[in-house]
Amino acid sequence: MEPARDRELDRQATTELALPPASLPRRMLAGFLDALVLATALTGFGATAGATNAPDAIDRASARPDFIVETGVAAGLSTSFFGAALIDNQHGTLYSIELPPTDTGPSTLADGSRYAWHEHGVGWAIPKSIRTGLVNRHHLVLQNVRQALPELLRQIPHVDIFFHDDLHTPDHMLWEYQLIWPHIRSGGTLISDDANFGWIQFCKQLGQGERAYENISRLAAIRKP
Ligand SMILES: C[S@@+](CC[C@H](N)C(=O)[O-])C[C@H]1O[C@@H](n2cnc3c(N)ncnc32)[C@H](O)[C@@H]1O
User: Which residue segments constitute the domains of the chain, with CATH numbers given?
Assistant: First the structure.
């Protein structure tokens, strides 16, 4: 997508999602809230966590998932929370998709982001206890999600929780939501970080009302009926 069009779509989404443009403190808060929501998502406390759609969507139906798929690993914050929950559950498998380090390096991605994780290794922040605790229940796929996700979806029977956090361009996100939705089981949850114009388009296509736009610093979720 052209950067100018991307910026315009994001400006519209910022209005529709009723969010002020991100500032540094807001971004830091967003990171904390992301972690909190992910932590509560799988432990069953989510339904009481507040006024947003996200914790409602991530209710107990998703609390004992068989299959979690996440896109975008970087240092491994989300991987750590999902992993910790699966260890607690003593059940479930996590699939994490990330670009090969050679494809990121110091370059800027199409959404304007730059990552330094390749200097330390993908998922470098995942605690050792989680790495070892998951034993063989974590599969890291180092391949562009455009190839990796369709391939993975041919291998697993369904998805209980899908977490989008890879490339945050509206077109790409819409592609990913549309691809994953038929594979999410009834009662399962689609979670997206950096919800933007792509999220709004997807919710409209699903016939979801504005409640689906509710978000915590652009972390949004929908549960499949
Ligand atoms: C926001 S970071 C992920 C943060 C991570 N979920 C966490 O909680 O620490 C986004 C990641 O998506 C990866 N990414 C971007 N485009 C991708 C693509 N096409 N396929 C796979 N991964 C991609 C980037 O390399 C980057 O590491």
Answer: 3-223 (3.40.50)
